[in-house]
């Protein structure tokens, strides 16, 4: 009996080993068929390594399961590969991870990918695939991660995808997909990321979206979705990113949305939303970015909106908002504040200068009034963009406005047009670091100071339609980066025009 057990065990060992060798050769054949359809391998990653001279488990991008000695992972991310996919990929029956991201693969996806029943991760993002998404992907019952972002897929998302009950990440953004989001979306109970942005999808967001209780990111921007924003989204109590910008959503913002305590990004810009911005927006305790621009909101800014200690980005431009700007009490992290193209009135509050991390401040095309003088710009050491054109402001340099701006050593954009600058341009303007300086139609008198030649970063300088006189400063010639110089509709004179025309960097000159 011992002899029998010995021979039986030996037989099983040999049979198992033979089977493993046969199966790994199946994987090898499938990968060689895949390699045969690659038309460009600029770094020689596969050409120099994928050879029968080496064990398939040692090939670049290939990993094997030690227990079964089968290929379980193929990761060829960012190798510059071009070609189409072989149907033989479907023979890699132990494959758990298939990642071809950031290459130039094209053609249609072979339906045989649906044979990979052990697959958990499928990432084909940033390639050139075309055609429809194969319904056979719905057979990948263990799939957790599906990323088809940035390709040329068209037609509809197959309904079979919504049967993938273990799916945690679904990203089909940046394609040409059409159709609607069906109520079946609510079956994906494990989903934490749903990204369908930058497609041609339309229709309503189904209320069944509320069944995806683990959802953290809902990214539907740049489509044609319409109707009201469903209040059922408020039941997604783990939601951190609600990104619905560039659609056709209408109506008001559901008040229940502001009960989502985890919400960090609320991006609703470029829709048809209307009504006042609700006071309840102040109930959000985690927001880092709020974008409501390019809608039809009216009324005043809720005071609580300017008292959010975590807020970094606030975009309210291109609406019908009015009234005065609330006092800023607690915005220590604010970097971007866009209030332009509204109907705001009154002074620009000095409290804005308490936001010491501010990079961009855009207040143009409103009806702000009052005098800008020695405001504490030294508090805004990181300011990059200061745009206040088309208001009713008086900029009084005798009170130190331009001098105070010299504290902003990172300032690139300074746009002041259609306000009043008194009494003239000071010599201290030469200490401003701007690349773009525009002060058209500001009623500026006097000469352009010679110190303009110290603005060594200037790319574009415009003073159209003022009351300037005297000579055009010869110091302009020292501005080696200057590309645009607009001084038209003034009373300037002098013989420096020829030298200006000889400046190599200058592409636009308007005198």
UniProtKB/TrEMBL annotation:
Pfam families: LRR_1, LRR_4, LRR_8, LRRNT_2. Gene3D superfamilies: Ribonuclease Inhibitor. Transmembrane segments: none annotated. SMART domains: LRR_TYP (SM00369). InterPro entries: Leu-rich_rpt (IPR001611), Leu-rich_rpt_4 (IPR025875), Leu-rich_rpt_typical-subtyp (IPR003591), LRR_dom_sf (IPR032675), LRR_N_plant-typ (IPR013210), RLP_Defense (IPR053038). GO terms for cellular component: membrane. It is found in: Membrane. Residues 1-19 form the signal peptide. Keywords: Glycoprotein, Leucine-rich repeat, Membrane, Repeat, Signal, Transmembrane, Transmembrane helix. It is a single-pass membrane protein. This is Leucine-rich repeat-containing N-terminal plant-type domain-containing protein. The lineage of its organism: Eukaryota, Viridiplantae, Streptophyta, Embryophyta, Tracheophyta.
């Amino acid at each position: 009996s011992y002899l029998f057990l010995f021979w039986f065990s030996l037989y099983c060992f040999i049979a198992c080993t033979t089977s493993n060798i046969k199966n790994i050769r199946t994987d090898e054949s499938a990968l060689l068929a895949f390699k045969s359809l690659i038309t460009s391998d600029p770094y020689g990653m596969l050409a120099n390594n994928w050879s029968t001279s080496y064990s398939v488990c040692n090939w670049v991008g290939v990993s094997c399961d030690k227990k079964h000695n089968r290929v379980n992972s193929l990761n060829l991310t960012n190798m510059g590969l071009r070609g189409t996919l072989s149907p033989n990929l479907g023979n890699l029956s132990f494959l758990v991870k298939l990642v071809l991201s950031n290459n130039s693969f094209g053609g249609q996806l072979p339906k045989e990918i649906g044979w990979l029943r052990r697959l958990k991760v499928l990432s084909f993002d940033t390639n050139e695939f075309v055609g429809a998404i194969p319904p056979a992907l719905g057979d990948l019952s263990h799939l957790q991660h599906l990323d088809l972002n940035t390709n040329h897929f068209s037609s509809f998302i197959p309904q079979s995808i919504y049967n993938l009950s273990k799916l945690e990440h679904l990203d089909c953004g940046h394609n040409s997909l059409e159709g609607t989001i069906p109520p079946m979306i609510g079956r994906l109970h494990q989903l934490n990321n749903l990204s369908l942005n930058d497609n041609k999808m339309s229709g309503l967001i189904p209320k069944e979206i509320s069944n995806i209780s683990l959802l953290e990111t809902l990214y539907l921007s740049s489509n044609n979705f319409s109707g009201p924003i469903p209040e059922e989204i408020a039941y997604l109590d783990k939601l951190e990113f609600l990104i619905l910008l560039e659609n056709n959503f209408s109506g008001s913002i559901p008040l229940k949305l502001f009960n989502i305590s985890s919400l960090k990004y609320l991006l609703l810009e470029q829709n048809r939303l209307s009504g006042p911005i609700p006071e309840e927006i102040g109930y959000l305790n985690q927001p880092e970015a709020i974008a409501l621009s390019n809608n039809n909101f009216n009324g005043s800014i809720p005071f609580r909106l300017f008292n959010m200690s975590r807020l970094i980005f606030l975009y309210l431009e291109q609406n019908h908002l009015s009234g005065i700007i609330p006092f800023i009490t607690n915005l220590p992290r604010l970097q971007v504040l866009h209030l332009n193209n509204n109907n705001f009135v009154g002074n620009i509050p000095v409290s804005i200068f308490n936001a010491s991390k501010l990079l961009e401040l855009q207040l143009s095309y409103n009806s702000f009034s009052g005098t800008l003088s020695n405001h504490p710009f030294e508090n805004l050491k990181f300011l990059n963009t200061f745009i206040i054109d088309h208001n009713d402001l008086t900029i009084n340099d005798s009170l130190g406005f331009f001098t105070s701006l010299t504290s902003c050593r990172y300032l690139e954009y300074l746009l002041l047009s259609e306000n009043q600058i008194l009494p003239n341009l000071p010599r201290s303007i030469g200490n401003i670091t701007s690349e773009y300086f525009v002060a058209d139609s500001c009623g500026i008198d006097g000469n352009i100071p010679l110190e303009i030649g110290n603005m060594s970063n200037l790319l574009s300088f415009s003073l159209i339609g003022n009351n300037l006189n005297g000579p055009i400063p010869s110091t302009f010639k020292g501005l080696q980066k200057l590309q645009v110089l607009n001084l038209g509709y003034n009373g300037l004179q002098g013989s420096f025009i020829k030298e200006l025309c000889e400046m190599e960097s200058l592409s636009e000159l308007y005198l």
